[in-house]
Amino acid sequence: MSYTIKLGMFGAWRGSSYVDLIAAEDPSVIQIIAVCDKQAKQLDNVKGLEGARLFSDFDEFLSYGKENGMNAVFLANYFHQHAPYAIKCMEAGMDVVSECTSASTLKECVELVRCVERTGRKYMIAENYPFMTLNLEMKRIIDGGTLGTFLYAEGEYNHSGTIETMKYLTPYKYHWRAWMPRTYYVTHAMGPLMYMTNSMPKYVSARAAHSERLAAFRDYRPNDDGMARMFCEMDNGMAASFTGCTAQASDYSRYRVVGDLGSVEQSGYTNDKVRLYYEDYTKPEGVDELVQYITPDLSAWGEKAEKALNAGHGGGDYWIVQNMIDYFANGKTPFFDVYKGVAMSATAILGWRSCLNHGENFRIPDFSNEEERKAVENDDLTPFPDDNGEGATLPPSTMYGKYDK
Predict the structure, then answer these.
(1) In the prediction, which pLDDT does 254 show?
(2) CATH number of residue 11's parent domain
(3) H/E element holding 385?
(4) 152/102 Cα distance (integer angstroms)
(5) Which helix or strand (DSSP H or E) is residue 144 part of?
(6) Do 60 and 94 share a structural domain?
(7) Which has more pLDDT, 157 or 315?
(8) Would you tell me the crossing angle of helices 338-356 and 106-119 to the nearest 10 degrees?
(9) What is the CATH number of the domain that holds 366?
(10) What string of DSSP letters covers 151-203?
(11) Is the pLDDT score of 279 beyond 90?
(12) Are 116 and 213 in a shared domain?
């Protein structure tokens, strides 16, 4: 029996990046029937979407969806507000894609997991960086098993910008970007490492570094740390080091996985290739060169190759749509399920507390374990104020305070 994903899009600004990709799919498989954005002007981004109703009120959007067979929602709303809406959608009988963090507090992590288990709805994270073309090539090489035992992995996500860009991305005083600590936007640096090495974080320690350049803009962006780097012990025994969203003057993101037999990496200097390295005494049989620069072979993707390469974020956005179809319509569970999603969120949350306490080590709860969930079910500490500037319980920068247990 065929299944059609009747999708609602919540968040028309970021969501518009996916609209054309979804519209290009077979409408008998997936179609967008409604779009909602609390800022009505953002709906201009999707006015050409045929057959979809537009809403500026979420409850009206959800009510319309329930009456018209909407069975899934793509959350592309504000970064720190996904969990409450995901829960509303699942309790209304809809599956959920969350782009690209699960929760902003440990309490929300617990509530989200419990909701997935209680309702039986499908939930996935739309973390796209693991599915960029070069990262998929790294994954292919790593899965070949020639790197030996994983020793450590590195991830770095850079997103600097001019003063004009920062003002554009921070449209009002209490917008989330103005208050987000550097550890919180962790998925683009951490997610690829988890995916490539099939691992989960167990402990986190972190440090942040102050930026004088950002301090000059403190009147509208109080989060004036330029960088935070987290160091994790992973469940496969590997050590992983990665940033949140950094504001440093670097022109590319980078990823590296090192084993005791070889290493693989990609970054700006590898020029759209993946660099694979072995020692002379560790190279596999049949390999002559110790250093190889590999261009990804897209032939295995067939007709999907061109579609992926024309999509945003190095092809990652295209594969998110394919993962969603495979999951919601065909039952193929994606790598980034709810447990991996909240693990990344908890790493970001506890990583920030570590920064505030000069690198203190924190254990990341196992959110599949109800006993461990109960220990943090009331932990709602947050650096994010509401629209009135109230409710923040943690500082947004290491310059303003520390974490008091």
Answers:
(1) 94
(2) 3.40.50.720
(3) none
(4) 25
(5) none
(6) yes
(7) 157
(8) 170
(9) 3.30.360.10
(10) EEEEEEEE----HHHHHHT--STT-HHHH--TTTS-HHHHHHHHHHHT--EEE
(11) yes
(12) no
CA pair distance 107, 55, nearest whole angstrom: 29
Query: Are residues 252 and 139 both part of a single domain?
Result: yes
User: How many domains in the chain?
Assistant: 2
Residue 2's pLDDT is what? 80
Residue 315 maps to a domain: no
Domain membership of residue 288 as a residue range:
128-304+338-405
- Residue range 285-323, pLDDT digits in tens: 999 999 999 999 888 777 787 788 777 777 789 999 999
Q: Which of 72, 96, 101 lies closest to 86 in space, CA to CA?
A: 96
pLDDT tens per residue across span 36-52: 999 888 898 887 788 89
Contact 242/155 with Cβ under 8 angstroms? yes
On whether both 115 and 173 belong to a single domain, the answer is no
CB atoms within 10 A of CB 295: 12
Token pair in block for residue 357: 């306490």
Cα-based distances in Å from 397 to 211, 217, 336: 10, 13, 29
Instruction: Point out the domain boundary residue: 81, 100, 127.
Output: 127
Domain boundary among 99, 127, 155: 127
In a domain, 358, yes or no: yes
Residues 231-243: tens digit of each pLDDT:
999 999 999 999 9
DSSP 389: S
Q: Are residues 165 and 41 in the same domain?
A: no
Decide if 331 is inside a domain.
no
Query: Does residue 118 lie within any of the structural domains?
Result: yes
DSSP 82-138: HHHHHHHHHHTT-EEEESS-S-SSHHHHHHHHHHHHHH---EEE---GGGSHHHHHH
Q: For position 251, what pLDDT does the model report?
A: 66
Cβ-contact 268, 251 below 8 angstroms: yes
Same domain, 236 and 101: no
Q: Average of pLDDT values for 17-46? A: 91
Spatial distance between the Cα atoms of 376 and 53, rounded to a whole number of angstroms: 39
3-state helix, strand, coil in the chain (%, to 5): 35, 20, 40
Taking a C-beta distance cutoff of 8 angstroms, is the pair 103, 109 a contact? yes
C-alpha distance from residue 347 to each of 26, 89, 221, 276, 343 (Å): 38, 25, 23, 29, 6
Can you read off the two tokens belonging to residue 135?
Answer: 């990262």
